[in-house]
Each structure stands twice: as structure tokens, then as C-alpha cells.
Design a protein that fits this description.
Elements (H helix, E strand, L loop, with lengths): L3 H26 L5 H21 L2 H18 L7 H22 L9 H12 L10 H5 L10 H12 L3 E9 L6 H15 E7 L2 H5 L6 E8 L3 H9 L4 E8 L2 H4 L7 H14 L8 H30 L5 H26 E3 L1 H4 L2 H12 L3 E6 L4 E3 H22 L3 H6 L6 E10 L2 E8 L6 H10 L5 H6 L2 H6 L22 H10 L3 E7 L3 E9 L4 E9 L2 E6 L3 E7 L5 E3 L2 E6 L2 E6 L1 H5 L13 E8 L2 E7 L1 E9 L13 E6 L5 E5 L1 H6 L5 H7 L4
Parallel strand pairs: 6-8, 13-22, 17-19
Antiparallel strand pairs: 1-3, 1-4, 2-3, 5-7, 8-9, 9-11, 10-11, 12-13, 12-20, 14-18, 15-16, 16-17, 18-19, 21-22
Helix pairs in contact: 1-2, 1-4, 2-3, 3-5, 4-5, 13-14, 16-17, 17-22
Length: 680
């Protein structure tokens, strides 16, 4: 039976190589003429073929063999890059992805590649009138391959000198019209082996023997022959167009002078360290480690509270306890920071999946899109990356469908035929900011307002008073859509409310900026991690609750007479802005204390969500602290209004308030109430 570890390694490699092929095939479609792009695809296919053969997946092996044949023909100029070719190659990748999913689901019987192999064979039978290499213009001007020697190569050359042999760097070029490069390269290498030893080859010797190079390759060669003799020997071989022979003085080509034995040892040790810098770690193990750090943080909080109790009693042990607490805090912070670094992944892990999707949607809608990605190396907690995948997909689909105009319309408006959609990630203080922008039509506010009134999201009266930002936020309401025609890309009135909900589930926020004709930008602000957050602790009816600090806008102190009633809703005016007030008792049927038991003044914690603000009435403020988010158990998991729980310093649990729920809990009249009370 196949080892589970081997299967995991195979699947990871398969997924990685499919992604590499996907990215590079899209680069070919854009007109990229870098030979390295084609070599990347060829190597990825070759790797998949080899590993699949070892694992016994014959159909995948056969499929990747056909992919190799196609790219071999492309490199030789016997096949041209066309849109049908790219479409077939992308269909091939889709088949490989299906194979990957079938194996991952333990259903290898579902693998079927016959159809796409037939399509590839049809491509291979295609003949071009002029067999001109895709990279011929580069090959004509190809410079000699430069080199330097590493320590082991230096030592080999020095030893060769003691036996009367010299080291040579050979740059060998074939005729661009050579039709059998692999055969010619094999003959060259065999000829050299008869006259000396080959120490190094660029590209690697197996690639040269397979013909996987442009028109030239280079060899580090040891021989007792003279330079001129070696050159004439190689030029005597048919289709060798040029040979450049350089005698090597090791010290001239070494990156540093010859090191001492002590330095050699240091370099050797350093190389050993470099080889073990990375390891593959199961995600579940990281989650367990993170959970243990959370437990350590909880115990530190309890110890800190215990220390404060002892200090209040003037206990002589307080100083020692304080030192222990500080030391644990230092260790906990360092451990937390290091584990968080392990959990971080570059957003390229997510972003690199999107170019293919954008390309397919653009083709389906008949639009021309230049998709730009920036900030791929920005790192984010893997759990956050997983959570925002679907929201980003929906926003990109909307940018293409709703935003970018058809090419003819763009030309009529004086814009370039090709629209631009940009996906960018960047750090901003302790947050990650992701923007999805387009240079399309923008959101037409008049149309948006009319659709809102037509579909009952606004009344005629409130539509006259609503602000631009409040109007834009209607997009995030369930069932709201500006598309009058439903298609398979968008327009069903589902999605944008889910987008905001999923972003806010990881303590993020989303904003919109738009200008008609100029374009639209969605800005997503996300925390670096969601496992441990900064929070505000409050007391309500002698119970402790937790507010994520990211949602706390401000805290104010008010007198009872400052709280007003509008219908059945409590409100308060803050700097000419009317805000609804929330009491937890109104949601969870707390037994409210008698009026005389409440404080003379009330604290109002103003919470922000989706561009709106509400006030939460609290009895006391307990301060800020880092908290560990724990999931609710079976008994409370279906209780709305809370996103989780944490453990306090006294060992008691406290519920983390779901700000999203409380804003929604004001009812469907919230927006109209705010509009009716709007104060300019």
C-alpha cells in the first residue's frame, strides 16, 4: 500500500507544477518571447511525467508526454503559438487539475485524459510552412554564457594543472536551422569526452542531450589539448556555427580569492546550514502549536491577575511573581511572533490562481483585459488567505462584468480598447490592504438609486437624503444587483452581501470608491492574523463581554437624558450624526436591573461596521488586552450574536460580540431611520 507521506508530497508537487504551467502559458499568450518561459513549462511537464510514472498514474504520464511533444515542436519552430493552441493547452491543464482532484479524493478511477490527448496529437500533426524558431531573433544575437567557479570547481582545475591539463570554458553555438539539436549536442559531448573531461555544462547536460536549449550551450572542460585544437575539432562537426574557447585562470573567475582551509571549513558549514533552512510542516501541527501558544497567553493573563491581587495585599511574594509574569510574557510574545511567521504565506499563493480565471471570463464576455498583479510577496496568515479567496473571485468577476466596457464602447469613449484590472496587496501599519481596481465605467449613482427605490431598498423620500457612501453601501445588501439581465457571471443579486460577511468574519472591512467613466476601486483591510486579536473588555449587567478593537470607533460618556427615543429605537446624537443605540438585553432577554441600580452616567461604545455605526450601552470599561479566540462549543455554536469566546485572567469565559449581527439586528428599518434623521 502506498505511503501517505509519499502521496502528500506527490500531490503538492503536482499542484505546484500545474500552477507554474498555467502562469507561463498565459505569459506565452500575451506575447512573451523569453525562452525561459517555454523551458519552465517543459520542465514542469517533465517533472510531472516522472513523478506520475513512479506513482503508477499512467494516464497522467501519457498526457504530460504529449505536452512535452507539443513544446518540443514549439521550441523547434515547427508549431506556432495561436489562440486555438493556447485554448487547447489550457484545457489540458484543466484536465490535469481534474486528475489532481480525483487523486486527492481517492478516486483515481475518475481520471480520463483520452479526449485531450487526441486534441494534442492533432496539434502535433499541424505543419507550418516556415519552420522559424520562436526565438530565432534572440539566438542570432545570443551572447556567450558567462560563468564563475565555485570552490570545488577551482580545486578540480588546480588538480588538473598538476597533471598537465588546462581548464577551458567552451561556448558552443549551433546553426539556427539545425533540425536535430539533441543529436548534434550528443555528438559534441561525446567528441569532447574523447579529448578530456566535462566538469560542468550550462544548461545541465541532461537538458542539452534532450535538445532543451536555444542555439548554444557552454561547457567547463579539462584537457591536455591546446585552445586552437579544441576549437577546430568542434568546428569540424556539422552544423556547429561558432566556438569560443577561453583558458581558465581560476582566480580570475572565482567570486572570491582562494580561501584558507579554515575559511573552507566555514564555507562548508554554511552550505550545510543553507540546505536545511526549510521543511514541510503539516498545517494541523501549526494549528496545534498556535493553540498551545494561546493557552500559554491565557495562563499568563491569569498569573498577571494573581500578581495584582498579591500586590494589593502587600504580599512579599508579589515582586517574585511579577518577575515570573514578565518573563513568561516575554517568552510568550517571542513564541507567538515566531509561530505567526510560520503561518504566514505570500499572497501570491492566492493571487496566482486568478490570471487564468480573468482570461476565461474576459473571453466569454468578449472583453479585452490587461490583468495586473502587484505586491505578491506581501505575507498574510494562511487562514485569512483561505477566507478571502471567494470574496476576491467575486470582486474580480464584477470588475470584468460590471466595470470594464466592451472594446468598441471603450474606443467610443476615447479609452484604450484593453481595460485594466489591478489586484494589489500592501502593508499598512498592522494591516494588509488589498485593492481591486478597474478603469471601467464606474458605478452610476443615479442608476443605483433608481434600482434601490424600484426594488424597495429605499423610499422616494429617503433617496433624496442619502449620502453617496450610504448609497454605495446598498450594494452589500442581500438581493441587491444593478444587472438587469442575469448571466452566468453575475446579476443574480447574490454575492456582495456574502463578500462583506466573509471579509468581516476575519475582522476585515471593505470600502468602495467610484467615479463614473473613470473606474471603481474596492479596498479590503485585513488583520495580519485572526488567531489572537486586540480587544476591548466591557461589563454589561455584571457580565464581561469582548469587542474586537478593530470595530471600536470611539467611547463616549453620556447622561441618561441625552439618550432619545425615535419610535421604538434608542438613539443618540454624536457630532451632528444620529446613531442607533443597542442594549444586549434587547437581543438576549437579559433581566434588566432596576433603574436605580444603573449608573448615573452610561458609557457608549461606538462600533463601526460596513460604513455604519451603532452605539452599545455598557456599564463599565475593563480595558484592552490581547485575547485568544476560542470557538463556541456544541451548546452555543448556533447562538447568533457571538463569534467566539476567550478565557479571562480569573479563568472565567467571556463571549466575543459579533458586531455584524448587532448592526443587522436593528432591523430592516435601520437605513431608513438614519436617512430620516440625517443632519447635514
Amino acid at each position: 500500500m502506498m505511503e501517505q507521506t509519499e502521496m502528500m508530497v506527490y500531490l503538492e508537487e503536482l499542484n505546484e507544477k500545474i500552477q507554474i504551467m498555467d502562469e507561463n502559458i498565459l505569459s506565452l499568450e500575451k506575447g512573451t518571447n523569453d525562452p525561459k518561459v517555454m523551458e519552465e513549462i517543459f520542465r514542469a511537464a517533465h517533472t510531472i511525467k516522472g513523478s506520475s510514472a513512479m506513482m503508477g498514474y499512467t494516464e497522467i504520464t501519457n498526457l504530460t508526454h504529449e505536452i512535452e511533444n507539443v513544446f518540443d515542436k514549439l521550441r523547434r519552430g515547427a508549431l506556432q503559438i495561436t489562440t486555438p493552441l493556447i485554448d487547447t493547452l489550457l484545457e489540458t491543464l484543466d484536465t490535469l487539475k481534474h486528475c489532481y482532484l480525483s487523486i486527492a479524493d481517492n478516486n483515481p478511477a475518475q481520471i480520463s485524459v483520452a479526449t485531450v490527448i487526441n486534441k494534442l496529437k492533432i496539434l502535433l500533426e499541424t505543419k507550418t510552412k516556415e519552420k522559424v524558431s520562436l526565438f530565432e531573433h534572440q539566438q542570432d544575437n545570443q551572447q556567450d554564457i558567462s560563468f564563475f567557479l565555485n570552490q570545488s570547481e577551482e580545486n578540480v582545475i588546480y588538480e588538473a594543472k598538476t597533471s598537465g591539463r588546462e581548464g577551458y570554458w567552451l561556448n558552443i553555438k549551433l546553426d539556427p536551422a539545425c533540425q536535430m539539436k539533441s543529436v548534434r549536442a550528443f555528438l559534441i559531448l561525446e567528441t569532447l569526452k574523447q579529448k578530456g573531461d566535462i566538469v560542468k555544462c550550462i544548461p545541465p547536460i541532461e537538458e542539452v542531450q534532450d535538445g532543451r536549449f536555444n542555439t548554444g550551450f557552454a561547457v567547463l572542460f579539462l584537457s591536455a589539448e591546446k585552445e586552437e585544437a579544441i576549437k577546430n575539432l568542434l568546428l569540424s562537426i556539422s552544423e556547429v556555427s561558432n566556438v569560443n574557447v577561453q583558458a581558465i585562470n581560476p582566480e580570475e573567475y572565482s567570486p572570491v580569492s582562494l580561501p584558507s582551509e579554515k575559511q573552507k571549513t566555514a564555507v562548508s558549514n554554511k552550505e550545510e546550514n543553507v540546505n536545511i533552512k526549510t521543511v514541510r510542516v503539516d498545517v494541523l501541527k501549526l494549528d496545534i502549536l498556535m493553540n498551545l501558544v494561546g493557552e500559554l497567553l491565557i495562563e499568563h493573563t491569569r498569573l498577571k491577575r494573581f500578581t495584582s491581587i498579591m500586590e494589593s495585599n502587600k504580599n512579599t511574594l508579589a515582586k517574585s511573581m511579577q518577575d515570573i509574569s514578565n518573563h513568561i510574557a516575554h517568552i510568550t510574545n517571542d513564541l507567538q511572533e515566531e509561530i505567526m511567521k510560520i503561518r504566514m504565506l505570500p499572497v501570491a499563493y492566492l493571487f496566482n490562481r486568478f490570471p487564468r480565471m480573468v482570461r476565461d471570463i474576459a473571453h466569454k464576455l468578449g472583453k479585452e483585459i490587461d490583468f495586473v498583479i502587484e505586491g505578491q510577496q506581501t505575507e498574510l496568515d494562511r487562514n485569512v488567505i483561505e477566507a478571502i479567496g471567494n470574496p476576491l473571485i467575486h470582486l474580480l468577476r464584477n470588475a470584468i462584468d460590471h466595470g470594464i466596457e466592451l472594446p468598441e464602447e471603450r474606443v467610443r469613449l476615447g479609452k484604450p480598447r484593453t481595460g485594466t484590472v489591478k489586484l494589489k496587496a500592501a502593508y499598512l501599519e498592522n494591516q494588509i490592504v488589498i485593492t481591486i481596481s478597474d478603469d471601467g465605467a464606474g458605478i452610476k449613482l443615479t442608476k443605483l438609486k433608481n434600482m434601490a427605490v424600484k426594488n424597495g431598498f429605499l423610499t422616494a423620500g429617503s433617496s433624496a437624503k442619502i449620502s453617496e457612501q450610504e448609497l454605495l453601501n446598498l450594494i452589500f445588501l442581500p438581493g441587491f444587483s444593478t444587472n438587469e439581465v442575469v448571466n452566468d457571471v453575475s446579476g443574480r443579486g447574490v454575492g456582495m452581501d456574502i463578500v462583506r460577511k466573509q471579509i468581516e468574519q476575519v475582522n476585515g472591512a471593505i470600502e468602495i470608491f467610484t467615479q463614473e467613466i473613470i473606474g471603481t476601486t474596492f479596498t479590503i483591510k485585513l488583520p495580519l492574523t485572526i488567531a489572537i486579536i486586540r480587544a476591548l473588555l466591557v461589563e454589561i449587567y455584571k457580565q464581561v463581554y469582548v469587542f474586537p478593537l478593530a470595530n471600536v470607533s470611539e467611547i463616549i460618556l453620556v447622561k441618561p437624558e441625552e439618550i432619545k427615543w425615535i419610535g421604538h429605537n434608542k438613539v443618540i446624537e454624536v457630532r451632528h450624526e444620529v446613531l442607533p443605540l443597542v442594549e444586549i438585553a434587547d437581543f438576549f432577554y437579559h433581566l434588566k436591573p432596576k433603574k436605580e441600580e444603573r449608573f448615573e452616567h452610561s458609557f457608549i461604545v461606538i462600533l463601526s461596521y460596513g460604513g455604519h455605526k451603532v452605539g452599545m450601552i455598557v456599564d463599565n470599561l475593563l480595558g484592552e488586552q490581547d485575547i485568544v479566540i476560542k470557538p463556541l462549543g456544541e451548546y452555543l455554536k448556533n447562538q447568533r450574536g457571538f463569534t467566539g469566546a476567550t478565557i479571562l485572567g480569573d479563568g472565567q469565559p467571556a463571549l466575543i460580540v459579533d458586531v455584524h449581527y448587532f448592526v443587522e439586528g436593528l432591523g430592516k428599518n435601520t437605513i431608513s431611520i438614519l436617512n430620516d434623521l440625517h443632519i447635514a
